[in-house]
Amino acid sequence: MEPDPGLIKLDTASGRDTVSGGEPGAAQRFASEVKYVSYYAQRLAETLGMRQLTLGIVEDREGQTAFHSSSTGWHGAVSSNRRGLWQVRESLVRS
Amino acid sequence: MTPNTLIAAAAALQRLDGVAGVILFKGKNTVHKQMPFSDGRALDLQTTIGQMMDGYRQVRRKMRQVYLEFDGGTLLILVQEEAMLVLLLTARADADLVASAAGVLLNDHALLLAQLSADESAAPAKTADGIEELVVTSPRRLQEMSEKAEPVVNNWGQIRKLIEGILGKVMGRAQASNLIDRTLEDTQVGDPYRLNATQVRKLAVSVIDHIPNTTKRRQLLTELESQLEDMNL
Question: Which of B102, B175, B204, B214 meets the CB 3.0–4.6 Å disulfide criterion with B171?
Answer without folding.
Answer: B175
